[in-house]
């Protein structure tokens, strides 16, 4: 008697257990025990093995943020990786992950990089990052309104916007000081570090009685955009007005006028 995956000793043990005579084995009893005990155990084990492992919370957060960036850039995630995958096997070296994502302006913390590499480690080659699995999760993810409200944004073309907004902020600071007011007064009911609707920001800014062109207000709203829903980072705005250090200038001329 032979059985795949079983040693001769195990086969003999089963034969002895179900033996009813020197020449006969209780085959029906063996099949009944398989149905009652072995098959349910096997199905349970298979389900457990096929169940995807739970990801690190850091990984989930990174995937959400990166998905949002890809939507803004209208970029397919696979396009970032294929150039580093000459064999087209769906993997790249783990050591390349951070630089690949940074090529799109997305920076990982050391902890985030470690979590991604652990959660998307290739099952055959542990030194490889399975970008195909990573991209599949990105493509399947649907961002909710809550997701969009929690994802912070950064201004595009920062150097150009910095100079324009710095001039506006400095002008606002001087005019508020002329009225002997403080920039945070109309924002006192809002939570520091949290965004506010653009309508509330406009209302607070208008309370100073300043005449600001609509185009300039739109520049400020765009620069201090807090999330994908268009909320405004009023706290950073107030801090920049108070300190008049909105940006790091490359031009000494701009630095001179803001002193």
Written description of the protein model:
InterPro entries: EF-hand-dom_pair, EFCB6. This is EF hand family protein. The chain is mostly helical and 259 residues long. Among the domains are: 57-150, EF-hand (Recoverin, domain 1), CATH 1.10.238.10; 161-243, Orthogonal Bundle (Recoverin, domain 1). The chain is built from 13 helices and two strands, in the order H-H-H-H-E-H-H-E-H-H-H-H-H-H-H. A two-stranded antiparallel sheet has the order 1-2. Helix 3 (57-73) packs across helix 7 (131-140), helix 9 (158-178) packs across helix 11 and helix 9 (158-178) packs across helix 12.
Output the keywords.
about 260 residues, mainly alpha, Recoverin, domain 1, two-stranded antiparallel ribbon, 13 helices, 2 strands, elongated, disordered C terminus, EF-hand-dom_pair, EF hand family protein, EFCB6
Number of alpha- plus pi-helical segments: 13
Distance between the termini: 93 Å
In N-to-C order, the SSE pattern is HHHHEHHEHHHHHHH
SSE class: mainly alpha
Helix content: 55-70%
Strand order of the largest sheet: 1-2
Task: Describe the global form.
Answer: elongated
Q: Show unreliable segments.
A: 155-160, 246-259
CATH superfamily of one domain: EF-hand
Q: What is the CATH architecture descriptor of one domain?
A: Orthogonal Bundle
Characterize the main sheet: 2 strands, antiparallel
**CATH class category name of one domain:** Mainly Alpha
What would the average pLDDT be, to the nearest integer?
Answer: 81
CATH overall fold name of one domain? Recoverin, domain 1
Percent in strands: under 5%
